[in-house]
Amino acid sequence: MSGFVDLHCHLLPAVDDGARTLEDALEMARALVDLGFSTVAPSPHARPEYAPVDVVEARLAELKAALEQARIPLSLGRNAENILDDAFLRGLGSPSARMLGEGRVALVELPYTAPVPALPDILFRIRTKGVVPLIAHPERCLEFERKGRAAEAVRAGAHLQLDVGALIGRYGPMAKKLARAFLDDGLYAVAATDLHGPVGARDWVGRALGELRSRVGEEASGRLLRGNPSRLLAGESLESDQD
Ligand SMILES: [Fe+2]
Fold first, then answer.
1. d(Cα 117, Cα 24) in Å, to the nearest integer?
2. How far is the CA of 174 from the centre of ligand 1 (A)?
3. How far is the CA of 118 from the centre of ligand 1 (A)?
4. Less crowded by CB within 10 Å, the N or C end of the chain?
């Protein structure tokens, strides 16, 4: 059986605040493989202060070659962590949009500490462009502290992505509380690591995956870590996503 699929991971070296060197990236990749991952779609921050898309593409090709040479069995896909801003919205549907895989999903993050009152309208606008928003770590964003907001986003056609570290308190008590509540309510479509570096990775990601399994069981955690993310990466719809 194929392994887990991570759709949020800062694995590409020297493109953002993730892996600093190729050695960092290989160490992170080894840890992920040991923990059961077989595929990662590295998601560098798509921000002006970080590497542009041509550099990202080159690093992706370099890392693929280095993984092969080091005999680390990890496949890589195309991805980016977009910011929910006007430039992102304007670019959707054009070749410049930084999508997940070859599909119609875009990974996007909301501000951590600012409200987004227009969220339902924005999600509607994204969907009318034929794009499915995959919202990164909602449990870490102020907007989703509003009661019912996460369920509303799912109803508006977004998929929510759990950052598994939140389950073990890596981002504080509020993110932990929200992550557990959204998980209990079945609001997440996928779970991801948002791994930024190799230090302690094997330990904390391992504990977080264990916590996820113990909270939802083997079948649901398999769906969040394997079934759903591999479908999204392949450009397929999830059951909740038929339209
Ligand atoms: Fe991230």
1. 39
2. 18
3. 23
4. N
Residue 37 to residue 29: CA distance in whole angstroms: 9
Residues around the ion ligand 1 (C-beta < 5 A): 81, 194
10 CA distance to ligand 1 centroid (A)?
Answer: 6
At 156, is the secondary structure helix, strand, or coil?
coil
* Contact call for residues 163 and 192 (beta carbons, < 8 A): yes
Are the beta carbons of 104 and 131 closer than 8 angstroms?
A: yes
174: domain range?
A: 4-237
Residue 116 lies in a domain: yes
Q: Which residues contact 85 (CB under 8 A, 6 or more apart)?
A: none
Q: Mind listing the pLDDT tens digit of every residue in the chain (243 residues)?
A: 589 999 999 999 999 999 999 999 999 999 999 999 999 999 999 999 999 999 999 999 999 999 999 999 999 999 999 999 999 999 998 988 999 997 899 999 999 999 999 999 999 999 999 999 999 999 999 999 999 999 999 999 999 999 999 999 999 999 999 999 999 999 999 999 999 999 999 999 999 999 999 999 999 999 999 999 999 999 999 975 544
CA of 194 to the centre of ligand 1 (A): 5
This model's pTM is above 0.85: yes
The structural domain count of the chain equals 1
CA 219 to centroid of ligand 1, rounded, Å: 26
Biggest distance spanned by C-alpha atoms of the chain: 49
Within-domain flag for 243: no
Q: Is residue 107 part of a domain?
A: yes
Determine, yes or no, domain membership for 242.
no
